[in-house]
Design brief:
Elements lengths: L18 E6 L2 E6 L2 E10 L2 E8 L4 E8 L6 H16 L8 E5 L11 E6 L3 E2 H6 L6 H20 L2 E2 L8 E3 L5 E3 L6 E2 L19 H4 L8 H16 L9 H12 L4 H6 L3 H10 L8 H4 L5 H10 L10 H5 L32 H25 L4
Antiparallel strand pairs: 1-2, 3-4, 4-5, 5-7, 6-7, 8-10, 9-12, 10-11
């Protein structure tokens, strides 16, 4: 792949399949004839999402249109990263990508791209915000599935970096899938500085807010702890108005960092902030925050919400915690067979042309798969 934008010859990603164009919410929405569009299920800055039926597999799917895909290089790289990550993962608790296509009329100069994923009924944020009763069994099953997915993700040397209730999808059977990998990054093996602006603030680990260099998979464990706490409270644990307020809310629970915790903060500015603003706070017990809650769950939660990331429980340790004894099965908690290659993230000056070319190549993989399937079935 020539990242300077030299053309690469690729067959058109939809040259052999009929398409239909619809007008939805004031915009054109195109899809191949294998998908029968149902209704819009979401709209935001990212684009429009519609539910559909894949008539070839008889499965319900979600089709997302991302308009102006190469207008913003940062957003384009995030979209490409997520496409590649979802194709790399293969786990029941990680949303699966089923197709990527571009408008047939545009060819390699496309402006929009469509992704097709599994369709889920709701997300954890909507459940928490509803009046639906959540029993102890719900919390246990959700926690287990989140950790199973995270084990698979972390084994590929990937940090999700944006775990929150709205990025955890559910269906009516309480099956759970993690989605939205646009901010995911590799776990650094050196002191590489990673951006502070990851994760929605309320679920952001303290080391991110204190500008640690080279933070680790422990940032995702902190977010899981925040999500579990929110399940119990039916409201966010740390709803900070800004970063300073967020750190005060966090240390109101974790207590003032110990001398060893302070020594682990490898940002002088962050360490000074703690010493000047967050001292003399006692750690609160989980039972004080969550009365009448399962003691084993509170023990697990207390091991997740630890200020010092090096002292935080790992996903492997969490899965073997007594709270999950009834569900834990090592043979049903697979790791990812290979580490993910974040090659696109290392291209500092990748051009829009090159990004379009790489997205085109992603779409082409699915077209080749479709043609091979049809040939095997004798349908072409």
């Amino acid at each position: 792949m020539d990242v300077d934008g030299a053309a690469q010859t690729l067959p058109p990603p939809h040259s052999t399949f009929a398409t239909h164009c619809y007008s939805l919410l004031g915009t054109n929405f195109e899809c191949p004839d294998r998908y029968h569009l149902n209704r819009p299920v979401g709209q935001g800055a990212y684009g429009i999402v519609c539910s559909a039926l894949d008539v070839r597999t008889n499965e319900r799917v979600a089709i997302k249109k991302i308009a102006g895909i190469v207008d913003n290089v940062i957003d384009s790289k995030r979209t490409l990263r997520e496409m590649k990550l979802l194709r790399h993962f293969d786990h029941d608790n990680v949303i699966r990508i089923k197709d990527v296509y571009v408008p047939s009329r545009d060819g390699p100069n496309f402006q929009d791209v469509y992704t097709v994923t599994e369709l889920m009924d709701t997300d954890l944020h909507q459940i928490i915000s509803s009046n639906q009763e959540l029993k102890g069994e719900h919390c246990q099953y959700f926690t287990y599935q989140i950790l199973k997915a995270l084990k698979h993700i972390h084994s590929a040397n990937v940090l999700h970096r944006d775990l929150k209730p709205s990025n955890i999808l559910l269906n009516g059977n309480c099956d759970l899938k993690i989605c939205d990998f646009g901010l995911a990054r590799g776990d650094p093996n050196d002191h590489e500085a990673l951006t502070v602006y990851v994760a929605t603030r309320w679920y952001r680990a303290p080391e991110i807010m204190l500008s640690y260099r080279g933070y680790t998979k422990a940032v995702d464990i902190w977010s899981v702890g925040c999500i579990i706490g929110e399940l119990l409270l039916r409201r966010p644990m740390f709803p900070g108005r800004d970063t300073v307020h967020q750190l005060h809310l966090v240390t109101n629970v974790t207590g003032t960092p110990t001398p060893s915790d302070l020594a682990s903060i490898n940002s002088e500015k962050g360490r000074q902030f703690v010493e000047q603003n967050l001292m003399n706070k006692p750690r609160k017990s989980m039972s004080e925050l969550f009365p009448n809650v399962n003691e084993q769950l509170l023990d697990l939660l207390g091991r997740m919400l630890v200020f010092n990331p090096s002292q935080r429980i790992t996903v492997e340790q969490a899965l073997t915690h007594p709270y999950l004894l009834d569900l834990h099965d090592e043979y049903d908690e697979p790791v990812c067979p290979s580490v993910f290659n974040f090659e696109c993230d290392h291209m500092e000056k990748v051009s829009k042309t090159a990004l379009r070319q790489m997205i085109w190549a992603e779409a082409n993989m699915y077209r080749q798969r479709d043609m091979e399937e049809l040939e095997r079935q004798g349908m072409r």
